[in-house]
Design a protein that fits this description.
Elements (H helix, E strand, L loop, with lengths): L4 H6 L2 E14 L9 E8 L2 E4 L6 E3 L3 E5 L6 E16 L6 H5 L4 E4 L7 H11 L6 H22 L16 H10 L7 H8 L3 H12 L3 H18 L4 H7 L5 H12 L3 H11 L6
Length: about 280
């Protein structure tokens, strides 16, 4: 079962490397309105200064992922690091992002499959080859997919919610919701697919993901609706495709989650096409 492809088929992943080199002293704030951050520490010690909470010291080659906008600052006396902006579908409700922690830190030594791509990233970063920037950005996107693949199947206190995608029971329910967002799912049907009682399924889903089954399904439906709207699909067809009885019902749910109706959101996205991204 491919747990990640449904997300990438609806939500475009983008990355843009904006810094590579040695960090001496304190960096400026890493802060955006829509993008997260991917940092790859190649060598040295990196101290993460957070708006709240104590500093975090990273003392071995590691990957740091902020999947959502989150202000943070680094301090170092010569750490070698590569930094990129990342977005999982700009301006869209991607449930995958909701399953990720605020900050995911993964030592490179624990994920051998990341090492070849990390080497390529730094090779391109310090080269003057033609096409350097697009090569870096595409490598960063591939690197991020590898990281998410690892996080989705590997035990980690930082990303327990993401492990729900690999849960032998919940994964079947996720797959059903992803494949058929238009279906009028009941709790009994999803629990049956998961091979669990209704009460056990509901409590296990909430404990594992931090969301109710229908809370997650609502996010998935709105995210798929956004993807279809951006492709030019009429609102009436979108509503039916994601399980709403009418465009009005979709509009109510859409507005509840995003604070604006579908067509206003689509208009805001189209205006951003002429605005530099990341």
């Amino acid at each position: 079962m491919d747990r990640l492809s449904p997300f990438f088929s609806h939500f475009s992943l983008s990355a843009k490397v904006f810094f590579s080199g040695r960090l001496c002293g304190t960096s400026t704030d890493h802060e955006t309105t829509t993008a997260g951050h991917l940092h790859v520490l190649r060598s040295g010690t990196l101290k993460i200064l957070q708006p709240s909470g104590p500093p975090i010291s990273v003392r071995e080659p590691s990957v740091l992922l902020y999947p959502r906008p989150q202000r943070h600052t680094f301090a170092s006396s010569g750490a070698e690091v590569l930094c990129a902006y990342v977005e999982f579908g700009s301006g869209m409700l991607n449930p995958l992002v909701a399953l990720l922690p605020q900050l995911l830190i993964v030592p490179l030594a624990t994920v051998p499959e990341l090492e070849p791509t990390a080497k390529l990233l730094f090779f391109e970063a310090f080269s003057l080859h033609d096409g350097r920037q697009p090569a870096l950005d595409r490598l960063a996107e591939y690197f991020l997919i590898l990281l998410l693949r690892f996080a989705a199947v590997s035990p980690s206190k930082q990303a327990d919610a993401l492990l729900a995608l690999a849960d032998k029971h919940l994964s079947k329910a996720f797959d059903a919701m992803h494949q058929q967002p238009e279906r009028a799912w009941t709790l009994e049907q999803l629990a049956h697919i998961a091979g669990m009682s209704r009460s056990r399924f509901s409590s296990h889903f909430l404990a594992t993901t931090g969301q109710t089954p229908f809370g997650y399904l609502a996010l998935w439906r709105i995210g798929v609706a956004q993807s279809l709207l951006k492709k030019g699909t009429p609102l009436k067809i979108v509503a039916s495709a994601v399980g709403f009885a009418s465009p009005e019902a979709l509009t109510r749910s859409f507005s509840l989650h995003l604070g604006m109706p579908p067509m206003a959101w689509l208009s805001s996205q189209q205006k951003q096409l002429n605005t530099p991204r990341l």
